[in-house]
Design brief:
Layout (H helix, E strand, L loop, with lengths): L1 E4 L7 E7 L5 E3 L1 E3 L4 H10 L9 E8 L5 E7 L5 E6 L5 H15 L4 H11 L7 H9 L6 E2 L3 E7 L4 H11 L5 E11 L2 E8 L3 H7 L6 E2 L6 E5 L9 H7 L1 E5 L2 H4 L10 E6 L3 E8 L4 E2 L4 E4 L2 E4 L22 E11 L18 E3 L3 H10 L7
Parallel strand pairs: 7-9, 9-10, 13-15
Antiparallel strand pairs: 1-2, 2-3, 4-10, 5-6, 6-7, 8-12, 10-11, 13-21, 14-20, 15-16, 16-20, 17-20, 18-19
């Protein structure tokens, strides 16, 4: 078993016992860890030992201020994690270093984070987005580095380190310390972990900075098409030239923001990208929507459609109507041939600016659009 005690001025303590067959507890003696570099190796190879899922994005990362961060990671929410080993430095030295690193990390742009990962994993040939989805099981968030957290990693902690970390946390600085103790029991070796502060506290303090997104090229948009073969049909959309969404204002509000002339990449949730085209005119509710088909401008509702494009309460609730945007498709494909691979951008909103460079590179190549602006 393990025990951790947090005191205002007492160092964190960890102890382990082996339970014998007769039920008695036999204490294990703490051993000297081979080196803090070996602890750094362990965390890099298996960051789960910290107690949460992280994706490593750098080791011995050089900062613009002349420092070198031991380990740099990111969590599923896009929060950057600075992991700094104590390495026999004084509390004042290691905390000052971590704070300096935090001041640099908060300035990192979305693109800079992608570049850091590319340098770190250049031998693997796996892009950040694909690695993120592989690690967390979800696409990478559109905004990275919305906050950061500082973690001191140590084989032992002194009262001064604990006192200072608790003090700066009181002012909203997202700093914490994790203690790893090394134990020997015959030929077996054990590692025990204990956090100084509740990680939920420092996680809450980690957010609040300006959102860091990749730059937008001013033209490309992501549009989600919720094909269900009852209300709306992708075959209708690609045949007659439109995209649509509705049922609630939440689904239509972002689609209404896409301007005429914008280039859109259509994505069917769970299936992949199925088309690219340009917005050919202003959007309108389905009952008012007009489409140019076979060279004739005509009401969409008068065409032979598979979908109904109606919702149960759209006669009485204007927010429930199906909203239609005419599209001049440059290229489309049937649903069974949707383009999908790990790491491609997807979003819960019906429409948003498509900033993700890795996704744009892949879509431009897939739909033969040349090179990204």
């Amino acid at each position: 078993m393990a025990r951790s005690v947090r005191g205002g001025s007492m160092p964190t303590e960890v102890a382990l016992w082996r339970i014998e067959e007769d039920g008695k507890a036999q204490p294990l003696a703490a051993a000297v860890m081979p080196s803090e570099n070996s602890l750094e190796d362990m965390i890099e190879s298996d960051p789960d030992i910290l107690g949460e899922t992280l994706l490593m994005i750098g080791r011995q990362v050089h900062t613009a201020n002349g420092g070198r961060i031991d380990l740099l990671a990111i969590d599923a929410e896009g929060i950057i994690r600075v992991l700094e080993l104590k390495k026999h430095r004084t509390p004042r030295e290691v905390l000052a270093q971590a704070l300096d690193y935090g001041s640099w990390v908060q300035t990192l742009s979305h693109t800079a984070i992608l570049d850091l990962y590319a340098d770190y994993r250049s031998d693997r040939g796996l892009g950040f987005e694909a690695a993120f989805e592989d690690r967390f099981g979800i696409p990478a968030p559109e905004a990275l580095n919305t906050g950061h957290r500082l973690t001191i990693v140590a084989a032992e902690l002194d009262a001064a380190t604990e006192r200072i970390i608790e003090y700066i946390n009181g002012f909203g600085v997202p700093a914490n310390a994790v203690l790893f103790r090394y134990y020997a029991d015959g030929d077996a070796r054990y590692l025990a972990r204990s956090w100084l502060l509740d990680e939920a506290h420092t996680a809450a303090a980690a957010t609040g900075k300006a959102v860091s997104r990749e730059p937008w090229n001013g033209r490309d948009w992501y549009v989600s098409f919720g094909a269900d073969d009852v209300v709306r049909s992708w075959d209708d959309a690609r045949t007659y030239g439109f995209t649509s969404a509705g049922g609630r204002n939440w689904f239509t509000r972002t689609l209404r923001s896409v301007p005429v002339g914008a280039r859109v990449f259509a994505y069917i949730p769970g299936e992949g990208y199925v088309g690219v085209g340009e917005v050919a005119g202003p959007g309108a509710p389905f009952t008012d929507a007009r489409i140019t088909f076979d060279g004739i401008d005509q009401p969409l509702s008068g065409l032979d459609l598979e979908g109904t494009y109606r919702h149960s309460d759209d006669d009485t609730d204007p927010d429930a109507v199906e909203y239609v945007v005419p599209i001049k498709w440059l290229s489309t494909r049937v649903r069974s041939e949707a383009f999908k691979k790990p790491g491609l951008f997807a979003n819960q909103n019906t429409a948003c600016k498509l900033r993700n460079r890795a996704t744009l590179d892949a879509l431009y190549e897939e739909f033969d659009l040349g090179t990204v602006d």
